[in-house]
Write a structure and sequence with these properties.
Radius of gyration: 30 Å
CATH superfamily of the largest domain: Methylglyoxal synthase-like domain
Shape: elongated
Strand content: 15-25%
Number of helices: 20
CATH architecture of the largest domain: 3-Layer(aba) Sandwich
CATH class of the largest domain: Alpha Beta
Helix content: 25-40%
Distance between the termini: 53 Å
């Protein structure tokens, strides 16, 4: 066990530090501290020795140099179990420092401010803090290192129960947390500085930042180990962003059910991302990463009933997501089917009671994001990544939305207001279907979904077959395609199936041929100018 007799405290974030220091002092632990923190302690009648008095060397260079001293780092790094270390420290008059309490300059918060200058960023790069944290973390058997206010209570409880000592299990856990914090801090600095276009920034008041830094440093925190990956022979774990966006899947509260699997999490994310993109009451059913049923309704029950009609076969064992509170009526309907995961922003007490009888169903509750101006505020990722062999592809996320004003009608026939709304609905759904994507819709519900085919005409044929298998008519339906039609054959298939309208990006070398086919069949054709490939 590490006996704590002397603690060095130097914190930028003062949260909880006064009570913590008072309790340390009450245990007879001597406190060393730097200027600002030392003043705070003196103002609150906590005995403290200022580091400059301890080292005999003043703080200087606007505080850039204050703890970078052998008497500080020797006291932290010296091993108590190595006689040569002990004798060297005694010869130089270096006492042990048994605890280091440091949180770092607020670099991340500083650069998050849109008015941050390069000088602001540089001055908020901590040097002495990370040095002390690393020193203490390296010598974890003898020194405890605390880097966050959330650690104070448990450490204090253990000190009080042992008369001022900490177990190796505790000091090791604190050491790991300290190295993780330094890693996160250094990654934030590297990401920010390597994103600066220095030449462009010279004439600007703030640094000009690239969306893609010269070096990408990511930090994820493990949420849990998983039973296995996509297949039983693969091992897996679930990680979250260091600072997850509000309303994202990783913020979910699991109310009941079995542990989530790798595939459950991937499909649940697909369902949740799709359903929260709608403003009206919506239900999305996902199977193998693709929506197999999406519908709007006056309430959760109607939305679910319509979504389920699209493809009852694929909905078996699917993921069902709502963007509204799930009530008793909807819960009774959903509970009649085999469901892997159920997601909603909230549930009535009656709905939860119904699912108690389905103990294996994983019921997730996720607060909807508030829908701010930025993707992060909307609960969306700002970037997407894809791992390849020894590399990583990074792109800005596909957060593009369109409105009726963005549409260009290229056919001779004009759409009705109702058809325009159904096309906008179909277009939104197609964005979440794997390419090549074809989505037939009508009356604010999907009628047939063709996904992930190598040929767009094959996706069109599959969507028609899906609708026929579900007993749904495609007469007067609308169709969304996530990319342009390279040939007229896809138009011929959807027209033969009964479609009345088609919405797609346009931009093919054969656009004139495709538009002519639409006019030949008497179809409405609208182009968006935006593609939504989803690989």
């Amino acid at each position: 066990m590490a006996t704590i007799k002397r603690a060095l405290i130097s914190v930028s974030d003062k949260t909880g530090i006064i009570d913590f220091a008072k309790n340390l002092s009450g245990l007879g632990i001597e406190i060393l501290s730097t200027g600002g923190t030392a003043k705070l302690f003196r103002d609150n009648n906590i005995p403290v020795i200022e580091v400059s008095d301890y080292t005999g060397f003043p703080e200087m260079l606007d505080g850039r140099v204050k703890t970078l001293h052998p008497k500080v780092h020797g006291g932290i790094l010296g091993r108590r179990d190595v006689p040569e270390h002990v004798s060297a420290m005694q010869a130089q008059g270096i006492p042990n420092i048994d605890m280091v309490v440091v949180n770092l300059y607020p670099f991340e918060a500083t650069v998050a401010n849109p008015d941050c200058t390069l000088e602001d960023a540089i001055e908020n790069i901590d040097i002495g803090g990370p040095a002390m944290v690393r020193s203490a973390a390296k010598n974890w058997k003898d020194v405890a290192v605390l880097t966050d206010a959330s650690q104070y209570a448990n450490v204090l409880k253990e000190l009080q129960s042992t008369g001022g000592a900490l177990t190796e299990a505790t000091t090791f856990t604190l050491s790991v947390a300290a190295f993780n914090r330094v890693s996160q801090y250094d990654a934030a600095i590297s990401n920010y500085l390597s994103a600066i276009d220095y030449s462009a920034s010279i004439s600007a008041s703030q640094p000009v930042l690239s969306a893609f830094p010269a070096q990408s440093n990511t930090n994820f925190i493990k949420v849990q180990d998983l039973r296995y990956g996509e297949n039983p022979h693969q091992s897996a774990a679930f990680y979250r962003d260091l600072n997850p966006a509000p309303g994202s899947l990783v913020t979910a509260q699991q109310l009941q059910g079995k542990e989530l699997s790798y595939n459950n999490i991937a499909d649940a994310d697909a369902a949740w991302e799709a359903v929260k993109s709608f403003d009206s009451t919506t239900c999305v059913i996902v199977k193998h990463a693709n929506p197999c049923g999406v519908a709007l309704g006056k309430d959760a029950l109607e939305a679910y009933s319509k979504a389920f009609q699209t493809d009852p076969t694929s909905a078996f064992g699917g993921i069902i997501a709502f963007n509204t509170t799930l009530d008793k009526a909807a819960a009774e309907a959903v509970s009649k089917q085999f469901v892997e995961v159920l997601i909603a922003p909230d549930y009535t007490a009656e709905a939860l009671e119904i699912f108690k009888a389905k103990a294996n169903v994983r019921v997730l509750k996720i607060a909807l994001p508030k829908g701010g101006a930025t993707p992060w505020e909307q609960g969306r990722n700002s970037h997407d990544t894809k791992r390849i062999g020894s590399g990583l592809l990074i792109q800005t996320a596909d957060n593009h939305e369109i409105s009726e004003n963005d549409l260009k009608i290229v056919s001779k026939k004009q759409p009705t207001p109702e058809q325009l709304q159904d096309m906008l609905f179909a277009w939104r759904v197609a964005k979440y279907v794997k390419s090549n994507a074809i989505v037939f819709c009508g009356n604010s519900m999907t009628l047939g979904v063709g996904a992930g085919q190598m040929s767009r005409v094959d996706s069109t044929k599959i969507a028609v077959i899906k609708a026929q298998n579900a007993g749904l008519t495609l007469k007067n339906s609308v169709v969304a395609s996530d990319a342009f039609f390279p040939f007229r054959d896809g138009i011929d298939v959807l027209a033969e199936a009964g479609a009345a309208c088609v919405i797609h990006p346009g931009g093919s070398m054969r656009d004139e041929e495709v538009i002519a086919a639409a006019d030949e069949h008497g179809l409405v054709m609208v182009v968006t100018g935006v593609r939504h490939f989803r690989h």
